[in-house]
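Encode chain A's predicted structure.
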Amino acid sequence: MGIKIAMLIIFFAVMAGVGVYARRHTSSVDGFVLGGRSAGPWLTAFAYGTSYFSAVVFVGYAGQFGWKYGIASTWIGIGNAVIGSLLAWVVLGRRTKIMTQHLQSRTMPDFFGERYGSKALKVAASMIVFIFLIPYTASVYNGLSRLFEMAFNIPYTWCVIAMALFTAVYVILGGYMATAINDFIQGIIMLIGIVAVIAAVLSGQGGFMNAISEMAQIPSDVPLTAGQPGAFTSFFGPDPLNLLGVVILTSLGTWGLPQMIGKFYAIKDEKSINTGTVISTVFAIVVSGGCYFLGGFGRLFDSPAIYDGSGAVVFDSIVPHMLSGLPDILIGIVVVLVLSASMSTLSSLVLTSSSTMTLDLLKDNVVKNMSEKKQIITMQILVVFFLVVSVVIALDPPTFIAQLMGISWGALAGAFLAPFMYGLYWKGVTRAGVWAGFISGVGITVANMFIGFIDSPINAGAAAMAAGLVVVPVVSFITPKPDKEKVDGIFACYDEKVTISRKRSLQE
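Encoded structure for chain A:
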């Protein structure tokens, strides 16, 4: 117990210390929100990766989907690395940096307002962010409860409050740069921790080959492959179609999440793009692939501890139960690992929410002539507000982690992915097309919450994103075209001439 508590104290002390160190970057709004757009490749890549993966993945998703799909759940981690990281950087990274800097936009709603010349779009986008980031923020805490109860016998309430408190300290003190530096430190912990935990868990099952052999004996209880042994060790698992829905939501969804896309706004230079692409992809393979691979062996730990009173599996308890037999030092590493993953995501979420509310909703709409200092103070106050609200929700969570996060991801990515991506590449996107994308993304997700026409909020989120990719161009084709001169002026930023070294280009 002494070792575990010492590790926690060191962890929280370092986080707070980084906040103090990064204070010099918060003298301007650009510095507080984007770190002065000067984050290097390692900081940007780790900030992207650690914002991507939290306790939601390690405890909630890995437990639930590992139980449902077996070893094939590793495909989710591979999809996260290839689609959610590699392709996101290649397709969106450079263009996002260039156009947002040209438009002087600091948030995703700000981008919609400037790119499409509509203040109403900016306000609507900021409201969507405000409403749907809160359940996601609350779900981040949820994954910690059982781990802390297992490791420390500390009441969940105190764990949540302490985590929120330390996150508030370093985000308020150091803004984006404190978040990015802490993300780097937390990312290193996550990389080392996940490798150590997988090795320890498999060792406890007689090694990798023996664990696979035992998994192969378990008959499937999924309707599609009911009764078949070996389904949980097969290439695509017992239910490939629903597995594909999870891959799409958790991978393609990052392309429309404001807290993820915001990392591209802060990129420093060309080297940061190239190096960051590789680093974030490798990070995702190890962390996300490792989490789902570990969760895939969950059925080997079948016991009364993972069921509720009605006999239903409590998915959020699977991974904590898998880890409960590890040595104290490894449990300490796991707790710090999950804390790292959760606090990095939490800090990114509250910074995104507070900056969006201040810059896109309050400034010039509610408060006129808002000075730089007032904007920074308002964002710092809103950081506290969002953390308090998320704590209140987290102390009485309405549903499983995966469902809570699925609703949030589905609405945000369903509304924003298509208008944002098309807006970077295609001059023909119209305001009506963007409005249609917002309505279809939020509409499908919210309607499914009440009507339930799609079985899972995960699949509903995937459907919302797919709908947006179709709806936005269709509506844009049949509605009045945007002002050609204005759009050409926006896209001119891609054609500006620059001088680069020979090693970057063979062009004469």
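The chain has one domain: 2-8+39-301+319-504.
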